[in-house]
Amino acid sequence: MTSQDTGTVYALVDPRTEAVRYVGQTRTTISTRLSGHRSQPSPSLKEWFDDLDAAGLTPGASVLVANVPEDRLLETEKSEIARLLAAGADLLNVDSNPVRQRLLAEQAAQKWREEEPARQEAERIRREAANAPWRESAEYARVFIGGPLAPGDIPPVPLGAEIIASLARLRAAESEPDDGAEDVVIRRGRPVLINRRDMLLNSASMPLSRAVDAHAKSVWGRVLGNTRDEFVYALTGSITDALRSPELSAEDAQRYISLVPWALIAVGPWATLAERGGITIRSDEFVNWVSNDPAIREALRFLLLENGHCPIQFTRLDAPTDARGRPVPSRPSLLLVAMAYAYQPAVDLPDAVRAETLGLLRALAKDSQVTPPMLRLLHRLDPSYVYDIASDIDTGTGLPEGTVQRVLSAIRSHPEFRQVGLIDQIQRRIAPDPPRDTLDWFDWRGDHVPSKAAITASLIRDGLMPPAEGEPVSQYVAEASRLWQPSITGSCT
């Protein structure tokens, strides 16, 4: 939906090839404009529409540029046409005269090429501006938290017979020449031509993925038992991508896959935070920035920079939304930021980072997973936030301390009251447990939990957060490190 003062530059797309065939502008909805095209098409569009109709298809539509001021619609439309023509698009709204069409295409392509440096510079400036507050936060976290936990002594993980056999079949499929032969397959009820070699590679890849999945569950069952699908996908996907690399030797493969869980759990939050700050993960800059520990730097160089290894799927476990598109406030990289500014509150958070950090702290507070410094930071970011709503109501209404809680407990225990779960939920939200000195994640379950445990262990290691009463620092750090240790006894099947 567009306003009266703005419009949309849109594309009509061929559903058979996903190629853009027409670029237009509208101040109404795209669906309304498409209806207009269908009722009164130009000759070139009519021929295309008739061809699609004969195949039982309709043109797709997508937004190229939204919310364009009305006085810039024509300019923006021409710019998009020029961009697509320069990329080789066969557009139907270019003059049908072949000579004129060729001339327009050449002029548009030349104009696009001439403007490319200015566009790249504008994009560079935009990226730097967006990265700057996160770079500041990443540097602050790195100064006060000594980087990720070291991998420790992780034994190489044997590949297992099924993985070795699946890899051999995949290598054999990859060695087959591509003669361009195609086979007809049925997709969504319609025949589609597929390259025969591509089908062979896909068929050979699936057993490898299944073998890696089974192998990972036998070797890292402890951590996988407390996580969910995204962690499994990130782990097995990273391992499978690496094994498919022809540059990775069998010996290196064993060490590589043994280090992947550590990289995802301990390094992942730092990698995501660095990337948001404009640091390239697969670079010496990141390796030297994230830790001063020689063992960590050596392991990361091996994983990220040597032998053509594939990148670890770090950001999959720190995505801003889940698989259903819902926001994820409690991300491990944000926990790094929150911990740094909570335990070393010398400066204020950059404005662009405040909202996401506040969302994280609110989510943790609902689960009673906050310490006093974290709660103080939450109140700094949102002075109106009330952690213990029950006590706040008591104070605000002049009731004795604990009255609201006693009333809720009385309702819960009344023989005529049946919605006990509702009262439990209310009590957890309005009267959470008091802030704790140390966070303990080992009884929690979720894709982010291992990384949060590793971050907490880093703070305990560096003396920023105390260990649990009576527990030595080394015990919590060792417990976190066991999350990525393999169980070799189950790995040789």
Protein architecture, described:
The chain is mainly alpha-helical. It folds into two domains: 6-94; 145-387 and 432-493, no CATH class. It has 19 helices and five strands. It has helices at residues 30-39, 43-54, 73-86, 98-144, 161-175, 196-219, 221-224, 229-243, 250-276, 284-290, 294-304, 332-343, 351-366, 372-381, 389-397, 403-413, 420-430, 449-461, 473-481; strands at residues 6-13, 20-26, 60-69, 182-187, 190-195. It has a three-stranded antiparallel sheet with strand order 2-1-3, sandwiched between helices. The longest helix is centred in the N-terminal third of the chain and has 47 residues, at 98-144. The radius of gyration is 29 Å and the shape is globular. It starts with 5 loop residues before the first strand and ends in a 12-residue tail after the last helix. The model has no long low-confidence stretch (mean pLDDT 87).
Short description:
The chain is built from 19 helices and 5 strands.
What is the topology?
Layout: E1 6-13, E2 20-26, H1 30-39, H2 43-54, E3 60-69, H3 73-86, H4 98-144, H5 161-175, E4 182-187, E5 190-195, H6 196-219, H7 221-224, H8 229-243, H9 250-276, H10 284-290, H11 294-304, H12 332-343, H13 351-366, H14 372-381, H15 389-397, H16 403-413, H17 420-430, H18 449-461, H19 473-481
Antiparallel strand pairs: 1-2, 1-3, 4-5
